[in-house]
Amino acid sequence: MKVIILGAGKIGSVIAFYLTKNKVFDEVSILDQCRDQFECFSQIKYIVQDIENEIKLKEIISNYQLVITAIPWKETLSVLHISAKLKIPFITITRPNYADFEILKKKLKNNKTPIIIGCGLEPGLTEIITRNIARKFSVVHEFHIKCGGIPLSPNPPMNYKVVFGNDCLPIGMRNAYFFENGALKTALRFSGVEKINVDLIGELEAWHDGMLPYFSTCEEFSSLTNATQKTLRWPGFSEKVNFLNELGFLSNEPINIGGLTTTPRNCLDAVLYPHVKFKTNDRDITLLLIEVKGLMKGKKTLIRFTLINHFDEENKITAMGKATGYTAGIIANMIADGSLTYEGLCSPDEAINGLIYENLLAKLLQEGIVFNETREDIT
After folding, report:
1. Pairing of strands 345-346, 90-92
2. Are the beta carbons of 110 and 341 closer than 8 angstroms?
3. What is the pLDDT of residue 110?
4. Residue 202 bridge partners (DSSP)
5. Preceding peptide of 264 cis, ω within 30°
6. 176-207 residue pLDDT tens
């Protein structure tokens, strides 16, 4: 069985490394439009190709039995449609536009080929674990997710280093979803800041960010009253981002500077990126903290799940790259070995439960991604 990965960046290269290391596939190929992106991994076939050339892309993809994308959603969407037409299983780490997911579900309702969207850390592992914990309850009243990647040593100006995506900070302003008093609501991203203390790490901040609006509508959450999904950073990050937004630096509206047309956001990225670029001597930590409250055997119960992942010194892989790329790689292997047989379009939390879920956790643990789950009665 042959697999092709589109996108040879910070995460795509990690997926390729994981798949070649585990040797489930007969051939692993990675495609990118820029040769400079390619890491020198053995046993990987490299393809230089413009992703926007759909005719050529279709010709290439037709030679594979699984397609994985680690590219932005706009480009992912066109690859998804090509895979669906060719009836080739497809997974992506990318978060879809909220409206796109519902449109896709209707458009591909008769499709039987596995198309699994959001197979990274967030989206992906966060929802998989939260929903599988929820399945242990007879009734779920609340869930609260906190997830994020932080540098081991915070340095100004942002106390943050870019470990995924393009050469810019992930600080776009948009609405974030949360559940309050039984109703789905929105708040501006970077709002709802709360301080938390994490053992052996210290004080962090968490703010509204990543909840997928359709996640709270799952059957396990039919009695949900409150739910949040927040991003973790070192303290002060959200205050700085909100200040930049107030000054207009996050705007993508064109401006003219000395006869040149650009945007405030482009100027900001050009100035900030050298300070937030992840360098060779940098190290990071990825955290996932989940709390689910509800009724279990008639008792009010709280389950806490904690995952902390550190930079991989042996393979020089970021904690974020490992948590995201290895999750996608494990799901890819499950499709290849036939243990994951879900039909049609879905998010991974729909497809991964029971023994498949336990196997996912076991594979993560084998790779040094450590987690802990506790349960207690509450009043």
Report:
1. unpaired
2. no
3. 85
4. 198
5. no
6. 999 999 999 999 999 999 999 999 899 999 99
Tokens coding 124: 């992906």
Residue 227: φ, ψ to 5°: -160, 140
> Does pLDDT of 265 surpass 90?
yes
Amino acid 176 reads: A
Instruction: State yes or no: pLDDT of 166 exceeds 80.
Output: no
pLDDT at 146: 97
Contacts of 46 (CB under 8 A, 6+ apart): 8, 29, 30, 31, 32, 35, 38
Domain membership of residue 266 as a residue range:
125-317+356-377
Find the CATH number of the domain harbouring 47: 3.40.50.720
Q: Specify if 336 maps to a domain.
A: no
Termini Cα distance of the chain: 53
At 226, give phi and psi (nearest 5°).
-135, 140
Model confidence band, residue 149 (pLDDT cutoffs 50, 70, 90): very high
CA distances from 70 to 83, 293, 312 (A): 15, 34, 20
Encoded tokens for 4: 């092709």
Provide the pLDDT for residue 215: 80
